[in-house]
């Protein structure tokens, strides 16, 4: 396949926090950009910066060498790709579609097969790195799909990410993202329990965290999520309700692959509890507040 390089036209569908930031970096890299989203107001900053607006996914895909999407869940991806005025109605054979959403692995593989029937390459590429990583263009892209499509779209990936790995056939990126999320939530649970233990034993939790950061327990979760727990800063970077969705996907992935996974099961149940306790709109680090509450700690 011919490499997709600036100033080729890229379509981006989905202007949430992550999608808008990734689209901005694609535009900044020198690509021509077309954007589409349910609320045009979210796309206005990009339109003002030079992007074209499309009324729907089909119009966005028309004439684009690569179509990117970043939407919340599996049904949303299916609607964008195959629904009325979907990508499949506007994309020409040979187009590469990159799905940056986090959805079910089996669905990703099935969607890729349906697109392949029309001569379109679909790559699943869920990302990690959060809103700041999206802004900085340093996301980790976990990619599944055909090597030819991945190689052709390499410049698009380079515009949004720093660590970009082709992991295998369609759906492989989603499996890796489930692994990423179950590790994060399990580590958050451990950090929350450790901080609660320290507080109940009379330790200063700030000093305790500082000490732990100097040893083998140092981790991204301890550096970032644990600090949010201690600061009670639950302004959403990644909402708990989205992490619950991701942990449901992780449960499906371990089940489908026959894995003994008690840590995944516990992590998923804790995210259910976080959301059911009224914290669904808060950052997922509000898991720490729930553990503290269940431990009898008063804030």
Automatic annotation (TrEMBL):
<keyword id="KW-0560">Oxidoreductase</keyword>
<dbReference type="InterPro" id="IPR013328">
    <property type="entry name" value="6PGD_dom2"/>
</dbReference>
<dbReference type="InterPro" id="IPR015815">
    <property type="entry name" value="HIBADH-related"/>
</dbReference>
<keyword id="KW-0472">Membrane</keyword>
<keyword id="KW-1133">Transmembrane helix</keyword>
<dbReference type="InterPro" id="IPR006115">
    <property type="entry name" value="6PGDH_NADP-bd"/>
</dbReference>
<protein>
    <submittedName>
        <fullName>2-hydroxy-3-oxopropionate reductase</fullName>
    </submittedName>
</protein>
<dbReference type="InterPro" id="IPR036291">
    <property type="entry name" value="NAD(P)-bd_dom_sf"/>
</dbReference>
<feature type="domain" description="3-hydroxyisobutyrate dehydrogenase-like NAD-binding">
    <location>
        <begin position="171"/>
        <end position="286"/>
    </location>
</feature>
<feature type="domain" description="6-phosphogluconate dehydrogenase NADP-binding">
    <location>
        <begin position="9"/>
        <end position="168"/>
    </location>
</feature>
<keyword id="KW-0520">NAD</keyword>
<dbReference type="Pfam" id="PF14833">
    <property type="entry name" value="NAD_binding_11"/>
</dbReference>
<keyword id="KW-0812">Transmembrane</keyword>
<dbReference type="Pfam" id="PF03446">
    <property type="entry name" value="NAD_binding_2"/>
</dbReference>
<dbReference type="InterPro" id="IPR008927">
    <property type="entry name" value="6-PGluconate_DH-like_C_sf"/>
</dbReference>
<dbReference type="InterPro" id="IPR029154">
    <property type="entry name" value="HIBADH-like_NADP-bd"/>
</dbReference>
<feature type="transmembrane region" description="Helical">
    <location>
        <begin position="12"/>
        <end position="36"/>
    </location>
</feature>
